[in-house]
C-alpha cells in the first residue's frame, strides 16, 4: 500500500490551482469535471501520481467555503531553505503565517504558509529533521 493523495475541499478552484502551481511550484497533473455530481477535481503535485503522493483539490459547484473544524492540521513540504521559500511565497502574493525558524521545542527549521482557503502548509527545511 501507499498514499495516493490528500483531498482538500476548495471554494475557488482557480485560486487554489494558482496557489499550488504558481506559489508552491507544483504542477497541475489532471483536472476533470463531473457535471452530474456538480463537482470538479484537480490534482496537483511535484511529480507523477504513479510514484508520488499528490493533492486532490475538490470544488463542489456553488460552495464557496467550508467549516474546517479543529481536527485538520496541515500538509508538510520539504524545502531546501525555509527562509528563502517564505520570501518566494511573499513575492508570489502568498501569505506566510509563521516565519521560518527553529521549532519551539527542537532544532527543525519550519515555517507555515496558508492557501486561499485557509489550509496550512508547513515548510520543513531539508537537513534539519530526521525521517523515521
Task: Supply the key terms.
four-stranded mixed sheet, 132 residues, 2 helices, alpha/beta, single chain
Q: Which secondary-structure class do the elements indicate?
A: alpha/beta
Percent range for β-strand residues: 35-45%
Helix content estimate: 10-25%
Radius of gyration: 15 Å
Total DSSP E strands: 8
Termini separation comes to 18 Å
> Low-confidence stretches at least 5 residues in length (pLDDT < 50)?
none
Helix-strand topology string: EHEEEEHEEE
Largest sheet, strands/sense/barrel: 4 strands, mixed
Report mean pLDDT, rounded to a whole number: 96
- What order do the strands of the largest sheet run in, or round the barrel if closed? 1-4-3-2
Assign an overall shape. globular
How many alpha or pi helices? 2
Could you characterize the architecture of this molecule?
- 22% of the residues are buried.
- This protein is α/β, with parallel strands linked by helices.
- The model has no long low-confidence stretch (mean pLDDT 96).
- Strands 1-4-3-2 form a 4-stranded mixed beta sheet, with helices on one face.
